[in-house]
Amino acid sequence: MKIAEIGDIVEFKDGLQGIVEKVNENSVIVDLTYMENYRDFDLEEKTVVNHKNYKIIKGSLSV
């Protein structure tokens, strides 16, 4: 399993997507405001997702 890096876009929990802001030992902190329809959901701006529970959609553009 590849662990996400800061700036990666991940998908988790029935299609929610967000940008990884911080990588911890067992989880990542994800900014959900990346989604265009973010306001349609009653969610906090950020959430914690275990490494086992997400899929990397798009990698960061690291140089």
Short description:
The protein is mainly beta and 63 residues long.
Structural description of this entry:
The chain is mainly β and 63 residues long. Helix content is 0%, strand content 43%. It is built from no helices and 5 strands. It has a 5-stranded antiparallel β-sheet with strand order 4-3-2-1-5, with no helix packed on it. It is globular and about 30 Å long. The mean pLDDT is 93.
Structural class: mainly beta
Give start-end ranges of low-pLDDT stretches: none
Lateral strand order in the biggest sheet: 4-3-2-1-5
SSE series: EEEEE
Pfam families: DUF2187
Protein name: DUF2187 domain-containing protein
InterPro entries: DUF2187
Which structural traits does this protein have?
mainly beta; five-stranded antiparallel sheet
Indicate the topology.
Layout lengths: L8 E4 L3 E8 L3 E5 L14 E5 L3 E5 L5
Antiparallel strand pairs: 1-2, 1-5, 2-3, 3-4
Protein name: DUF2187 domain-containing protein
Organism: Lederbergia galactosidilytica
Pfam families: DUF2187
